[in-house]
């Protein structure tokens, strides 16, 4: 517990002093502006909630793939990595706590997008199912943090994995139905969407902002949490491999 | 009780071309008593840091065993990690964007030091290393010496019983280095065991109970600081200029003179084999009107070469 506390606190302090860590959050209102402008101009203000969910999840995703994924690379640069490994704290838990804090910063995208709708378009996006919204946001943050543990380890092990940041993230958002619901995509893409936690998150968040009742909430939330847990386990195994490699070879990188 | 023990420790790496095997530690066996300050002295690449990494559990040995307070570093990793503290030299191992206090708080948490104890310990350590006034400033604004002192505090924050200090005074100014030596004395007084690696012979002499000379991963000798001084003194040399050839021949035959060689830059170097003969040689040179006489002690590397030559790589 002390290790989790310490990890979150130190990451908070590091991020507080690194303006570039907020970079993506500064872009979120502009994403929201584009999506919402299209809907408002086409007379579909009723779909503004869709335009809120998109930038929100892009914010969480970018914090996970671009900021939280750099946690280990940054520790390598400061040469704190080996010292962390020499402590009795479970390393995967420390990394996961730190990625969790960073991905949770992506939730600011909700407030940013909501304010864009209110201030720029004079529209109020209502939250019809607050419980569903909160639970979905927490589960999404957890799943994003788990995914960031994988990418963080990958970026430390091999430089080529870094190309994933640029080539995979945006297609991932499209496949996950972050921009438009996955149901609007060709049927054959559906199996792909289902294994991406963001697709379940996006549907749940849209339902939380819709006046209609939310069906199958628990299993859908379970899907987000399950995929997040699977990512966390995979990330922990990868971290274990990274540590083994370091202890055997005396250096990181494969 | 033995605090640190290695037996036949071997560590090899694959070289850059993957085919060549580089031996970093070669059958290294040492024993450090609890409460002892043990210096590991050697040039860069001697294997000092490799040994510290193995003892710190971040590197696995290729062969052999290493134990900390009886616990094996390979099979009882978690227990060992609770017992040790590590300090690297220079400004490595700190987050520059946050304050010294936040850095220490983080490490205290990773060592599972309970909150109230951690707070008190961090305050005490910051005062102890002279950073109390700058505790809440960001580390990137610290001087190199301040970062090193913070790093030292970092290594102590766990309350470790065994400390590994890897070239901790590298780049420290003389006053900070003196304070550091005083601190090592205090830590020894608290019963902690300290393994300190350095290539500064004066530092080793000042703080260590015993000093081991290491090169190419092999232990060359283990001496008390007094023994080390004697070792160096034995290899003292005298440089002289404009010395008549008959005087050189006379000196060459004196007891305690190991060799006399002409120097490329002019003059001769008289290599001593016994420090007690030095005044006698100087007296002879002065009596024969040699005006330019300089005595000097060899560098550590030169002593190594002597030891290797004298002992044929045997401890």
Structure description:
- The complex is a heterodimer of chains A (254) and B (315).
- Chain A is mostly helical.
- Chain A has one domain (2-249).
- Chain A has helices at 2-16, 23-41, 48-67, 71-78, 81-85, 91-104, 108-121, 130-157, 163-175, 190-194, 197-208, 217-249.
- In chain A, helix 1 (2-16) packs across helix 6, helix 6 crosses helix 8 and helix 8 (130-157) runs antiparallel to helix 11.
- The radius of gyration of chain A is 19 Å and the shape is globular.
- In chain A, 48% of the residues are buried.
- In chain B, helix 3 crosses helix 4.
- With 315 residues, chain B is α/β, with parallel strands linked by helices.
- The model of chain B is unreliable at 311-315 (pLDDT under 50).
- In chain B, the strands form three sheets. In chain B, strands 6-7-8-3-9-10 form a six-stranded mixed β-sheet, sandwiched between helices. In chain B, strands 2-1-4-5 form a four-stranded antiparallel β-sheet, covered by helices on one side.
- In chain B, strand 4 (63-68) and strand 5 (71-72) form a beta hairpin.
- Classes of the chains: A mainly alpha (254), B alpha/beta (315).
- The A-B interface holds A 2-3, 5-7, 9-10, 13-14, 17-18, 78-80, 82-89, 94, 246-250 and B 13-14, 50, 53, 56-60, 78, 81-82, 84, 86, 88, 92-99, 102-103, 105-115, 138, 154, 158.
